[in-house]
Design brief:
single chain, elongated, 390 residues, 4 domains, Beta-Lactamase, five-stranded antiparallel β-sheet, disordered C terminus, alpha+beta
Length: 390
């Protein structure tokens, strides 16, 4: 019995040694795999560092209460602080007080709609200087299922400064155009219209001096006299449109009322002008000129192309926008086809309106279908103060 036990003991020993060798080989293989995984992990960490920490934009994760849970190095650099200072601080602390409402409205939209939201506001650095930033945020969940906000923000100061310069240049150009319009209007009215009137008088005198025995010549002179009269009326109307009659003296609303009334009286289209919420707004003259010119251009398009007999013009002051609605009962048109045609034929009607709207950071929409009339809606962002009515 003892010998068998010794034999079994040797066999057991060999089996154990074999299993140990197998385990050793497996451990060595696993160790190799771990070293490879460690190399890959280091590479992934380096890529994460490059993509996250060294990204050209700030990345941060916010709690539902707006606390910064984590942030990359760019976030800290943009705000002029160390990354440790950012963690567990409300991001609103780094937003200019005057723009706090933009941030909270941004979060509200994000919470309600759950879709990617973007806004532009001013952020404050540690040294109290501020810069324009664009924020984009999305809703997601963290590792334990809590809702968090992923936020990306970038410095758009250069773009804002460029926009400001472009806006200033555009305003200067507009003012130069208005001065040039005024000079041309005066020249048309005081010189060309007067010369045409004198020419018509001379034509009538010649007509009266020609005997009735020359009917063909008298007929040509009569036609010339009628053509001169039409030209005089056209020149005077053009001179009138180039000016801003009464805008400075009477204000925007009264000037538009007068312009629409005269257009209705002298043309084939009845223009109905209405306004609401505008009397309490104190606008700069530049904005008044833009509004006047936009409505004027739209009315000219209706008279020339719409084949309408009635149009309604509604001017609304609805903070934070001024809204213009213009609708006619004309023949309408294909908007897309007209846009392509305007580019091809270099017609400036709608294009000039769009350029003017862009100049004041507004938006314009045109809805039209053949035989169903046309509606133009213009929205102009407005930041002026309201008149104190107390």
């Amino acid at each position: 019995m003892t010998e068998n036990q010794e034999v079994l003991s040797h066999e057991e020993t060999r089996r154990v040694l074999h299993e140990l060798r197998v385990y050793q080989n497996e451990l060595e293989a696993q160790n190799v795999e771990l070293r490879v995984a460690h190399v890959h992990l280091d590479a992934a960490r380096a890529r994460y560092f490059d993509l996250y920490d060294l990204a050209p934009v700030g990345y941060c994760t916010l709690s539902e209460k707006g606390l910064i849970l984590e942030a990359n190095l760019t976030s800290a650099n943009l705000l002029g602080v160390s990354r440790g200072v950012l963690v567990q601080k409300p991001i609103s602390r780094f937003i200019l007080e005057e723009d706090q409402y933009i941030y909270y409205l941004h979060l509200k939209k994000l919470s309600v709609y759950g879709e990617l939201q973007a806004c532009e506001l001013r952020m404050v650095r540690q040294d109290k200087t501020h810069f324009w930033a664009r924020l984009e945020a999305a809703v997601t969940q963290d590792a334990v299922g809590k809702r968090v906000f992923r936020v990306v923000f970038s410095d758009i100061n250069d773009r804002k400064n460029a926009d400001k310069k472009i806006h200033t240049l555009s305003q200067s150009l507009m003012q130069a155009q208005e001065r040039e319009r005024h000079l041309i209007s005066c020249e048309l009215h005081d010189t060309i219209a007067q010369n045409l009137s004198a020419l018509k008088i001379n034509n009538n005198l010649i007509y009266n001096d020609i005997p009735m025995t020359f009917p063909a010549l008298r007929e040509k002179l009569a036609a010339s006299s009628n053509l001169l009269l039409e030209t005089i009326v056209a020149v005077r109307n053009l001179a009138y449109d180039l000016r801003l009659p009464g805008l400075k003296e009477m204000g925007l609303l009264k000037s538009l009322e007068m312009y629409c009334a005269e257009a209705s009286e002298n043309g084939n289209v009845q223009f109905d002008f209405q306004s609401s919420g505008m009397s309490v707004i104190n606008m700069k003259r530049d904005i008044e000129i833009h509004i006047y010119r936009l409505i004027q251009e739209c009315m000219n398009n209706i008279r020339k192309h719409a084949d309408a007999n009635r149009a309604t013009i509604l001017l609304l002051g609805s903070s934070p926008n001024i809204i213009i609605h213009i609708r006619d009962n004309g023949k309408g048109f294909d908007v897309k086809a007209q846009e392509l045609s305007s580019v091809a034929t270099k017609r400036m009607g709608i294009r000039s309106m769009q350029e003017r709207v862009n100049m004041i950071h507004g938006s314009m929409m045109i809805h039209s279908q053949p035989m169903k009339g046309t509606q133009v809606s213009i929205k102009i962002p407005f930041a002026e103060k309201y008149v104190n009515q107390s």
